[in-house]
Hints:
Elements: E1 6-8, H1 15-24, E2 28-30, H2 32-49, H3 75-86, E3 90-93, H4 96-110, H5 119-131, E4 134-135, E5 138-140, H6 149-159, E6 164-166, E7 172-174, H7 175-181, H8 193-198, H9 202-232, H10 242-245, H11 251-264, H12 268-272, H13 285-288, H14 290-312, E8 320-322, E9 327-329, H15 337-365, H16 388-404, H17 426-460, H18 471-482, H19 495-506, H20 509-518
Parallel strand pairs: 1-2
Antiparallel strand pairs: 3-5, 4-6, 6-7, 8-9
Pfam family, one: Lyase_aromatic
Family: Belongs to the PAL/histidase family.
Main location: cytoplasm
Amino acid sequence: MSHQPVAVGTGPLSPEDVLAVARDAAPVELTAEAVAAIGRARRVVDELGASETPTYGVSTGFGALATRHIPSDLRAQLQRSLVRSHAAGSGPEVEREVVRALMLLRLSTLATGHTGIRLETAQLLADLLGRGITPVVREYGSLGCSGDLAPLSHCALALMGEGEVRDADGVLMPAATALAAAGLAPVELAAKEGLALINGTDGMLGMLVLAIADLRRLLRTADVAAAMSVEAQLGTDRVFAPELQALRPHPGQALSAANLAACLRDSGVVASHRGPDCNRVQDAYSLRCSPQVHGAARDTVEHAATVAGRELASAVDNPVVLPEESRLESNGNFHGAPVAYVLDFLAIVAADVASISERRTDRFLDKARNHGLPPFLADDPGVDSGHMIAQYTQAAIVSELKRLAVPASVDSIPSSAMQEDHVSMGWSAARKLRRSVDGLTRVVAIEVLTAARALDLRVSTGSTTGVSPSPATGAVVRLLRESGIEGPGPDRHLSPEIEASVELVRSGAVLAAVEEVIGELQ
């Protein structure tokens, strides 16, 4: 699949730009504005480097070693040493999409003309993205302050033709080999370039942008799952009426309730027990309060998106070049606190939305609470266990999500001989959020799987025999069945069905199935 290049340097990148490069392998190109801005900033660095007066980041050491003046003949070695020593990551490889997002966001800052990078160095970073060359970045190494130093250093190392990378086909090889195969030459970093390449919040920001996109889709899918559960548990849709939501005007709540109402519209199951004979006074909280929980989650995601938008418009480096005044200034903009806080907040969101989803699922399995369905939705209860252990899997994941909801950003371990004495741990917050998003995906997928089985049982047995589910929920049941997930019957190997449902949720197929029949959800 070919993609239009993403232009870097004509203003802030959009989240869609980040997704195109990170996930869809779109190439990038530096704009004329970026080329001019890079040139202006570089001239300032060259002038300061030629001065007798030491300038931090140009002619001095770094961090706690900033008091040493570095003579001009050692400055190239200074940059090499900086990148080599800081490329100290450990642990498993970070995902390709995260590294590509990190590289793009660093390039975006370089293109602002506030870092002092040379054009040829910035262009090589763009070329790596365009050729699909992805440096190997390790899980551990960033404290989320002074930028994501270790992850970015592994990327900078590749520009020097050192370290390991994966090519466009995912093959692991030395960076020098990959560059040569792509017709690219490594660069010898000049004054200030080492810092310019490694001093940013790009890793944690990239993971935030990816998580926001995933959570927006997941929260709409959670509305679908909740609607399926309300319907199959003979709940009422009256509590989702807009006039009730207006009494508490949180925007996310109104959107979620509207989605639930739309998904339940024209449901024969809901209509079958809507009359005066219904003895249900109130549904359980996990059904009735779904819009309040899902809506609060939505509002939190949008707050995080506001923070991400501000960060996408930022130029994060230290020291920073102010070309109009021909000077470099130290600053603290590399501190990851603004990003770290919302990353942690989103992990709380993921845990709680998963928690209410698991509670809705559990109600299906308890004969005392599922309103006439067989225990555990089993074909022959006692011989068969039905979805008993699917709920165990949900519970195990929810428990893990609660642990992941403990904030990383409240921790700080001093580093660099106490020069860097308060750090954000934003990278750690981002890494655990990725696990949280995956866990939420799995929990919602199990609810969809269980609710679909319950709907099939509901329309084939008992008081609702022969009635039809709503067009929206019926579309999800059909999707599962057409994807090879069988309907109710004797016990069978359940794990493959769970994994298939997870993929249908993760890919957006469940959401698409609904929107094809009732239009776009909010």
